[in-house]
Specification:
By secondary structure, this protein is an alpha+beta fold. It has 4 helices and 7 strands. Strands 2-3-4-5-6 form a 5-stranded mixed β-sheet. A hairpin with a 6-residue loop joins strand 4 and strand 5. Bound molecules: zinc ion (2 copies). One zinc ion binds next to loops.
């Protein structure tokens, strides 16, 4: 969704929309390390107000995400509950006065071209900024065995304690389960 600044009324523009998996996918990097999925559509409620030299975006972005555990890759549910309070400043209007600079440091702000707000881009950024640095299914997650790939939370390591299976081990198991075809 794109919003033209000259179409925002003085009373503000209110945006309510839902973001589904398809929309999210447009913004995910191809090698998304989080394997991010939406459990339900993201609920976006924003109001955009015109001020003399900037725009202010206020509201919330809420949803329920599913991310891959950093260690075991199991899906982990992550509630998304972002309060948005953002200042959009026209790119050419770089703060010249020291006073303005100081003020800006305390605010969350972004530059834009002064004419069109790329709202989807803005929503995607807010979602990504809210992600934890490292997703874990639990602090005690034991992860995957780097050799056999066993999920050490739920199964024993298949290569520990000298029980290393050769490719032939599988074959032996297969033989045991086959009916005895030995003939005289
Ligand atoms: Zn885990
Ligand atoms: Zn192992």
């Amino acid at each position: 969704m794109r919003i033209r600044v000259d179409e925002i009324p003085e009373s503000g523009r209110f945006v309510h929309l839902h973001w589904d998996q398809g929309r999210l996918r447009e913004f995910l990097p191809p090698d998304d390390p989080f394997e991010m999925k939406l459990v339900r559509p993201v609920n976006v409620d924003l109001e955009i107000h015109k001020r003399s030299d900037h725009l202010r975006v206020l509201g919330s972005i809420q949803g329920l995400l599913e991310l891959a555990c950093h260690r075991c890759l199991d899906p982990v549910r992550h509630p998304l509950n972002e309060a948005v309070d953002l200042f959009l400043i026209e790119e050419v209007r770089t703060p010249a006065e020291e006073e303005t600079e100081l003020e800006l440091e305390e605010l969350e702000y972004e530059f834009f071209d002064g004419e069109v707000i790329e709202l989807d881009q803005l929503i995607a950024e807010q979602i990504f900024l809210s992600l934890p640095h490292k997703v874990l299914c639990s602090a005690e997650c034991r992860g995957l065995c780097p050799r056999c790939g066993a999920n050490l939370n739920t199964e024993p390591c298949r290569c520990a304690g000298g029980d290393e299976r050769s490719p032939f081990a599988k074959l032996n198991v297969l033989r045991e389960t086959l009916p005895d075809k030995k003939m005289d």
